[in-house]
Design brief:
It is built from 11 helices and 12 strands. The protein is an alpha/beta fold.
Length: about 350
Protein backbone atom coordinates (compact mmCIF):
# COMPACT_ATOMS: atom_id res chain seq x y z
CA UNK A 1 0.00 0.00 0.00
CA UNK A 2 1.14 3.56 -0.72
CA UNK A 3 -0.98 6.61 0.09
CA UNK A 4 -3.98 4.33 0.31
CA UNK A 5 -3.22 2.77 -3.07
CA UNK A 6 -2.54 -0.90 -3.62
CA UNK A 7 0.35 -2.23 -5.69
CA UNK A 8 -1.21 -3.75 -8.80
CA UNK A 9 1.72 -4.42 -11.14
CA UNK A 10 5.29 -5.38 -10.31
CA UNK A 11 7.83 -6.14 -13.03
CA UNK A 12 10.97 -7.88 -11.80
CA UNK A 13 13.91 -7.94 -14.18
CA UNK A 14 11.74 -8.90 -17.18
CA UNK A 15 13.73 -10.34 -20.08
CA UNK A 16 12.67 -11.30 -23.60
CA UNK A 17 15.28 -12.68 -25.99
CA UNK A 18 14.74 -14.09 -29.46
CA UNK A 19 16.89 -16.33 -31.60
CA UNK A 20 17.48 -14.96 -35.10
CA UNK A 21 18.49 -17.70 -37.53
CA UNK A 22 20.20 -15.35 -39.96
CA UNK A 23 21.35 -11.73 -39.59
CA UNK A 24 22.82 -9.70 -42.48
CA UNK A 25 25.13 -6.89 -41.36
CA UNK A 26 25.50 -3.58 -43.26
CA UNK A 27 28.87 -4.73 -44.62
CA UNK A 28 27.27 -7.83 -46.14
CA UNK A 29 28.47 -10.35 -43.59
CA UNK A 30 25.95 -12.92 -42.40
CA UNK A 31 25.72 -14.20 -38.85
CA UNK A 32 23.78 -17.29 -37.85
CA UNK A 33 21.79 -18.08 -34.70
CA UNK A 34 22.11 -14.65 -33.08
CA UNK A 35 20.49 -13.63 -29.79
CA UNK A 36 18.21 -10.58 -30.08
CA UNK A 37 17.71 -8.83 -26.72
CA UNK A 38 14.35 -7.12 -27.23
CA UNK A 39 13.72 -6.55 -23.50
CA UNK A 40 16.78 -6.91 -21.32
CA UNK A 41 16.11 -6.61 -17.59
CA UNK A 42 13.21 -4.19 -17.00
CA UNK A 43 11.88 -3.52 -13.49
CA UNK A 44 9.20 -1.17 -12.15
CA UNK A 45 6.00 -1.13 -10.07
CA UNK A 46 2.60 0.52 -10.49
CA UNK A 47 -0.10 1.25 -7.94
CA UNK A 48 -3.85 1.55 -8.51
CA UNK A 49 -4.84 4.72 -10.33
CA UNK A 50 -1.33 5.29 -11.76
CA UNK A 51 -0.38 5.65 -15.41
CA UNK A 52 3.14 4.86 -16.58
CA UNK A 53 4.23 6.34 -19.89
CA UNK A 54 6.88 4.36 -21.78
CA UNK A 55 8.77 6.33 -24.42
CA UNK A 56 11.74 5.74 -26.71
CA UNK A 57 12.73 5.39 -30.34
CA UNK A 58 11.29 2.70 -32.60
CA UNK A 59 12.88 -0.65 -31.83
CA UNK A 60 13.67 0.14 -28.19
CA UNK A 61 11.41 -2.66 -26.90
CA UNK A 62 8.28 -0.71 -25.88
CA UNK A 63 5.76 -2.89 -27.71
CA UNK A 64 7.55 -6.11 -26.79
CA UNK A 65 7.31 -5.06 -23.14
CA UNK A 66 3.59 -4.44 -23.63
CA UNK A 67 3.09 -7.93 -25.06
CA UNK A 68 4.97 -9.46 -22.14
CA UNK A 69 2.77 -7.63 -19.64
CA UNK A 70 -0.43 -9.10 -21.11
CA UNK A 71 1.10 -12.55 -21.65
CA UNK A 72 1.00 -12.46 -25.44
CA UNK A 73 4.70 -13.40 -25.31
CA UNK A 74 6.38 -15.72 -22.80
CA UNK A 75 9.14 -14.33 -20.59
CA UNK A 76 12.71 -15.47 -21.19
CA UNK A 77 13.63 -14.45 -17.65
CA UNK A 78 12.41 -12.47 -14.67
CA UNK A 79 8.83 -12.25 -13.50
CA UNK A 80 5.68 -10.11 -13.72
CA UNK A 81 3.25 -9.97 -10.81
CA UNK A 82 -0.33 -8.69 -10.97
CA UNK A 83 -1.99 -8.23 -7.59
CA UNK A 84 0.90 -10.21 -6.12
CA UNK A 85 0.41 -13.23 -8.38
CA UNK A 86 2.91 -14.22 -11.06
CA UNK A 87 1.45 -14.29 -14.55
CA UNK A 88 3.61 -17.35 -15.22
CA UNK A 89 1.46 -19.31 -12.78
CA UNK A 90 -1.68 -18.51 -14.79
CA UNK A 91 -2.84 -21.45 -16.88
CA UNK A 92 -4.08 -19.75 -20.04
CA UNK A 93 -4.49 -23.15 -21.73
CA UNK A 94 -7.63 -23.75 -19.68
CA UNK A 95 -10.73 -21.71 -20.48
CA UNK A 96 -11.33 -20.73 -16.86
CA UNK A 97 -7.74 -19.58 -16.35
CA UNK A 98 -7.71 -17.69 -19.65
CA UNK A 99 -10.97 -15.87 -18.91
CA UNK A 100 -9.91 -14.94 -15.37
CA UNK A 101 -6.63 -13.50 -16.64
CA UNK A 102 -8.23 -11.58 -19.53
CA UNK A 103 -10.73 -10.02 -17.18
CA UNK A 104 -7.87 -8.76 -15.00
CA UNK A 105 -5.61 -7.59 -17.85
CA UNK A 106 -6.72 -5.76 -20.99
CA UNK A 107 -4.95 -4.42 -24.09
CA UNK A 108 -5.98 -1.39 -26.17
CA UNK A 109 -4.54 -1.58 -29.68
CA UNK A 110 -3.17 1.11 -31.97
CA UNK A 111 -5.57 0.53 -34.87
CA UNK A 112 -9.22 0.38 -33.74
CA UNK A 113 -10.37 -0.95 -37.12
CA UNK A 114 -8.18 -4.04 -36.76
CA UNK A 115 -9.14 -4.70 -33.14
CA UNK A 116 -12.85 -5.33 -33.80
CA UNK A 117 -14.77 -7.69 -36.07
CA UNK A 118 -16.14 -5.60 -38.99
CA UNK A 119 -19.14 -7.97 -39.24
CA UNK A 120 -20.39 -7.20 -35.73
CA UNK A 121 -22.50 -4.28 -34.55
CA UNK A 122 -21.40 -2.01 -31.71
CA UNK A 123 -23.90 -3.71 -29.43
CA UNK A 124 -22.41 -7.13 -30.13
CA UNK A 125 -18.85 -5.81 -29.77
CA UNK A 126 -19.64 -4.61 -26.24
CA UNK A 127 -22.01 -7.42 -25.27
CA UNK A 128 -19.64 -10.29 -26.14
CA UNK A 129 -17.09 -9.70 -23.33
CA UNK A 130 -19.93 -9.22 -20.83
CA UNK A 131 -21.40 -12.59 -21.78
CA UNK A 132 -18.03 -14.35 -21.78
CA UNK A 133 -17.25 -13.16 -18.26
CA UNK A 134 -20.76 -13.59 -16.87
CA UNK A 135 -21.36 -9.89 -16.19
CA UNK A 136 -25.02 -8.98 -15.98
CA UNK A 137 -27.87 -11.32 -15.07
CA UNK A 138 -29.89 -10.75 -18.24
CA UNK A 139 -29.74 -9.35 -21.77
CA UNK A 140 -31.50 -6.19 -20.62
CA UNK A 141 -29.00 -5.61 -17.83
CA UNK A 142 -26.06 -6.16 -20.16
CA UNK A 143 -27.59 -3.83 -22.73
CA UNK A 144 -27.98 -1.18 -20.04
CA UNK A 145 -24.28 -1.55 -19.18
CA UNK A 146 -23.42 -1.06 -22.87
CA UNK A 147 -25.56 2.06 -23.11
CA UNK A 148 -23.93 3.55 -20.01
CA UNK A 149 -20.48 2.77 -21.42
CA UNK A 150 -21.24 4.53 -24.71
CA UNK A 151 -22.60 7.60 -22.95
CA UNK A 152 -19.54 7.69 -20.69
CA UNK A 153 -17.41 7.67 -23.83
CA UNK A 154 -19.32 10.66 -25.20
CA UNK A 155 -21.26 8.70 -27.84
CA UNK A 156 -24.75 10.13 -27.39
CA UNK A 157 -27.47 9.18 -27.83
CA UNK A 158 -26.13 5.70 -27.21
CA UNK A 159 -29.13 4.00 -28.82
CA UNK A 160 -28.10 5.45 -32.18
CA UNK A 161 -24.72 3.73 -32.05
CA UNK A 162 -25.71 0.24 -30.88
CA UNK A 163 -26.90 -0.94 -34.31
CA UNK A 164 -24.00 0.55 -36.28
CA UNK A 165 -21.12 -1.39 -37.81
CA UNK A 166 -17.43 -0.35 -37.56
CA UNK A 167 -17.43 0.89 -41.16
CA UNK A 168 -20.12 3.43 -40.18
CA UNK A 169 -17.95 4.98 -37.47
CA UNK A 170 -14.99 7.35 -37.50
CA UNK A 171 -11.63 6.24 -36.14
CA UNK A 172 -12.13 8.31 -33.00
CA UNK A 173 -15.59 6.88 -32.34
CA UNK A 174 -14.35 3.33 -32.83
CA UNK A 175 -11.37 3.86 -30.54
CA UNK A 176 -13.72 5.14 -27.82
CA UNK A 177 -15.69 1.90 -28.18
CA UNK A 178 -12.49 -0.17 -28.05
CA UNK A 179 -11.48 1.62 -24.84
CA UNK A 180 -14.88 1.05 -23.23
CA UNK A 181 -14.86 -2.59 -24.32
CA UNK A 182 -11.64 -3.00 -22.33
CA UNK A 183 -12.73 -0.96 -19.32
CA UNK A 184 -16.24 -2.43 -19.12
CA UNK A 185 -14.72 -5.51 -17.43
CA UNK A 186 -13.20 -3.40 -14.62
CA UNK A 187 -9.65 -4.70 -15.23
CA UNK A 188 -6.90 -4.20 -12.69
CA UNK A 189 -4.32 -3.40 -15.35
CA UNK A 190 -4.42 -2.07 -18.94
CA UNK A 191 -1.78 -1.72 -21.65
CA UNK A 192 -2.48 1.01 -24.22
CA UNK A 193 -0.09 0.61 -27.17
CA UNK A 194 0.03 3.83 -29.24
CA UNK A 195 -3.78 4.26 -28.84
CA UNK A 196 -3.99 7.70 -30.49
CA UNK A 197 -1.26 7.63 -33.14
CA UNK A 198 -3.74 6.81 -35.95
CA UNK A 199 -6.34 9.38 -34.90
CA UNK A 200 -6.87 12.97 -36.02
CA UNK A 201 -5.03 15.52 -33.92
CA UNK A 202 -8.31 17.31 -33.16
CA UNK A 203 -9.69 14.39 -31.11
CA UNK A 204 -6.55 13.06 -29.44
CA UNK A 205 -7.02 15.13 -26.28
CA UNK A 206 -10.54 13.74 -25.80
CA UNK A 207 -9.29 10.16 -26.14
CA UNK A 208 -6.47 10.84 -23.67
CA UNK A 209 -8.94 12.32 -21.19
CA UNK A 210 -11.16 9.25 -21.57
CA UNK A 211 -8.22 6.92 -20.89
CA UNK A 212 -7.15 8.96 -17.88
CA UNK A 213 -10.65 9.22 -16.40
CA UNK A 214 -11.39 5.52 -16.86
CA UNK A 215 -8.09 4.48 -15.26
CA UNK A 216 -8.72 6.67 -12.21
CA UNK A 217 -12.43 5.86 -11.91
CA UNK A 218 -11.90 2.10 -12.24
CA UNK A 219 -8.99 2.27 -9.77
CA UNK A 220 -6.87 0.43 -12.31
CA UNK A 221 -3.33 1.12 -13.52
CA UNK A 222 -2.12 1.61 -17.08
CA UNK A 223 1.05 1.32 -19.13
CA UNK A 224 0.78 3.90 -21.92
CA UNK A 225 3.22 3.16 -24.75
CA UNK A 226 4.00 6.03 -27.11
CA UNK A 227 6.70 7.76 -29.13
CA UNK A 228 4.92 11.10 -28.61
CA UNK A 229 6.60 12.89 -25.71
CA UNK A 230 4.02 15.68 -25.38
CA UNK A 231 1.19 13.14 -25.18
CA UNK A 232 3.05 11.04 -22.63
CA UNK A 233 3.77 14.12 -20.51
CA UNK A 234 0.05 14.98 -20.45
CA UNK A 235 -1.37 11.61 -19.45
CA UNK A 236 1.31 9.99 -17.29
CA UNK A 237 1.99 9.97 -13.56
CA UNK A 238 5.33 8.25 -14.12
CA UNK A 239 7.59 7.97 -17.16
CA UNK A 240 10.06 5.27 -18.19
CA UNK A 241 12.53 6.01 -20.99
CA UNK A 242 13.68 2.89 -22.85
CA UNK A 243 16.74 2.42 -24.99
CA UNK A 244 17.65 -0.87 -26.63
CA UNK A 245 15.59 -3.04 -24.30
CA UNK A 246 16.48 -1.31 -21.02
CA UNK A 247 15.06 1.54 -18.94
CA UNK A 248 17.64 4.34 -18.83
CA UNK A 249 15.56 6.83 -16.81
CA UNK A 250 12.48 6.41 -14.63
CA UNK A 251 10.52 8.60 -12.24
CA UNK A 252 7.59 10.93 -11.75
CA UNK A 253 6.48 12.51 -15.02
CA UNK A 254 7.32 16.07 -13.92
CA UNK A 255 10.82 15.07 -12.83
CA UNK A 256 11.66 13.15 -15.99
CA UNK A 257 10.10 15.62 -18.42
CA UNK A 258 11.18 18.89 -16.79
CA UNK A 259 14.44 17.80 -15.13
CA UNK A 260 15.84 15.02 -17.34
CA UNK A 261 19.18 13.59 -16.26
CA UNK A 262 20.18 10.89 -18.74
CA UNK A 263 21.72 12.31 -21.95
CA UNK A 264 19.35 10.25 -24.11
CA UNK A 265 16.28 11.61 -22.30
CA UNK A 266 17.64 15.15 -22.56
CA UNK A 267 18.14 14.73 -26.31
CA UNK A 268 14.67 13.29 -26.85
CA UNK A 269 12.91 16.05 -24.93
CA UNK A 270 14.99 18.84 -26.45
CA UNK A 271 13.81 17.75 -29.91
CA UNK A 272 10.15 17.27 -28.96
CA UNK A 273 7.50 19.67 -30.22
CA UNK A 274 6.05 22.18 -27.77
CA UNK A 275 2.59 23.74 -27.65
CA UNK A 276 4.13 26.97 -26.35
CA UNK A 277 5.34 29.07 -29.32
CA UNK A 278 7.44 31.27 -27.00
CA UNK A 279 9.28 28.35 -25.41
CA UNK A 280 12.95 28.39 -26.40
CA UNK A 281 14.93 25.20 -26.63
CA UNK A 282 18.38 24.20 -27.75
CA UNK A 283 17.95 20.87 -29.58
CA UNK A 284 20.54 18.24 -28.74
CA UNK A 285 21.60 16.31 -31.80
CA UNK A 286 22.11 12.54 -31.55
CA UNK A 287 24.55 11.19 -34.12
CA UNK A 288 23.93 7.92 -35.90
CA UNK A 289 21.19 5.30 -35.80
CA UNK A 290 20.23 3.12 -32.84
CA UNK A 291 22.53 0.09 -32.72
CA UNK A 292 21.27 -3.43 -33.22
CA UNK A 293 19.91 -5.37 -30.21
CA UNK A 294 22.17 -8.23 -31.36
CA UNK A 295 25.49 -8.61 -29.55
CA UNK A 296 25.01 -5.65 -27.19
CA UNK A 297 27.51 -4.62 -24.55
CA UNK A 298 29.69 -4.84 -22.63
CA UNK A 299 29.52 -1.05 -22.23
CA UNK A 300 26.61 1.40 -22.19
CA UNK A 301 24.35 0.79 -25.18
CA UNK A 302 23.98 4.54 -25.77
CA UNK A 303 27.72 5.24 -25.65
CA UNK A 304 28.34 5.25 -29.45
CA UNK A 305 25.86 8.16 -29.83
CA UNK A 306 26.35 9.94 -26.49
CA UNK A 307 27.79 13.46 -26.17
CA UNK A 308 28.97 12.72 -22.60
CA UNK A 309 30.70 9.38 -23.24
CA UNK A 310 34.06 8.51 -21.74
CA UNK A 311 36.29 5.47 -21.99
CA UNK A 312 34.54 3.89 -19.00
CA UNK A 313 31.20 3.99 -20.84
CA UNK A 314 32.57 1.64 -23.48
CA UNK A 315 33.78 -0.89 -20.92
CA UNK A 316 30.88 -1.38 -18.48
CA UNK A 317 27.13 -0.76 -18.31
CA UNK A 318 26.15 1.89 -15.72
CA UNK A 319 23.87 0.73 -12.88
CA UNK A 320 20.72 2.65 -11.99
CA UNK A 321 21.31 5.56 -9.61
CA UNK A 322 18.73 7.43 -7.53
CA UNK A 323 18.83 11.23 -7.66
CA UNK A 324 15.99 11.58 -5.13
CA UNK A 325 12.22 11.27 -5.05
CA UNK A 326 12.20 7.97 -6.91
CA UNK A 327 13.93 9.51 -9.94
CA UNK A 328 16.38 6.94 -11.35
CA UNK A 329 18.85 7.09 -14.21
CA UNK A 330 21.55 4.88 -15.72
CA UNK A 331 24.64 6.95 -16.60
CA UNK A 332 28.18 7.38 -15.24
CA UNK A 333 28.64 11.00 -16.30
CA UNK A 334 25.26 12.70 -16.00
CA UNK A 335 24.69 14.55 -12.72
CA UNK A 336 21.28 15.36 -11.17
CA UNK A 337 22.14 19.07 -10.94
CA UNK A 338 23.09 19.11 -14.58
CA UNK A 339 19.80 17.51 -15.50
CA UNK A 340 17.81 20.07 -13.50
CA UNK A 341 19.28 22.86 -15.62
CA UNK A 342 17.80 21.22 -18.69
CA UNK A 343 14.22 22.52 -18.82
CA UNK A 344 12.43 21.17 -21.90
Amino acid sequence: MRNGRQKVLEVKNAVKHYRQKMLTLPDGRRLKNQLVKAVDGVSFALFSGEILGVIGESGCGKSTLGRLLVKLEPLTGGDILINGKSIQSVNTKSKAGRLAFRKTVQLIFQNPYESVDPRETVERILMTPLKLHGIGSSEDERRKICVEALETAGLKPAEDFLSRYPCELSGGQLQRIAIMRAMILNPAFVVADEPISMLDVSIRADILNLLKEQTKNKNACMVFISHDIATTRYISDKVAVMYLGRIVEYGNADDVMHRPVHPYTRALISNAASIDPDEKRQPIEIQGEPPSPVGTGPGCFFAPRCFLRTERCEQEYPPMADCGGGHWFSCFNAQPDEGKEQVP
